[in-house]
Specification:
about 140 residues, mainly alpha, 2 helices, about 70% helix
Length: about 140
């Protein structure tokens, strides 16, 4: 039996192939726009979910800042009340407001590193040393 090569294409095969090609093109023409709509809808849903998540995170961060500010304010009030009580105790033990102010003045003088300090007298005026600054010629 001899094998003969024939390039003859049967009309039935050509028709089936052409029909499949037409169906594929028509399917692509109908399916691709539908796929784009579906893809865009999914992208929109994902963007919406991300926006909602970001909004919730922002709300939670704002609540945390609010609670933190309230706690800091309460702590500051407690600290101020404690300082006021301590000042009242010091003031009462030093003979009233004048004694407490004199105590604060002494504390400030101890902390300073100045060479020349003017202390107010009973009238509230400082004693000046104008002769000291003139030098040896003026004496």
């Amino acid at each position: 039996m001899a094998f003969t090569s024939s390039t003859e294409v049967k009309p039935g095969c050509l028709g089936v192939g052409l029909a499949l090609m037409v169906l594929a093109v028509l399917g692509w023409m109908f399916g691709y726009p539908q796929y784009r709509v579906y893809s865009q809808r999914l992208a929109g849903e994902a963007a919406l979910a991300e926006a909602q998540s970001s909004r919730q995170v922002a709300i939670l961060e704002a609540r945390a800042k609010k609670e933190s500010a309230i706690s800091l304010a309460e702590a500051e009030v407690i600290r101020a009340e404690g300082a006021a009580k301590a000042n009242k105790i010091l003031q009462d033990s030093l003979g009233g407001p004048e004694g407490y102010l004199r105590y604060l003045q002494i504390q400030a003088l101890e902390d300073t590193k100045a060479q020349l300090i003017y202390v107010p007298t009973e009238a509230g005026l400082p004693v000046t040393e104008s002769r000291r600054l003139q030098g040896p010629e003026g004496r």
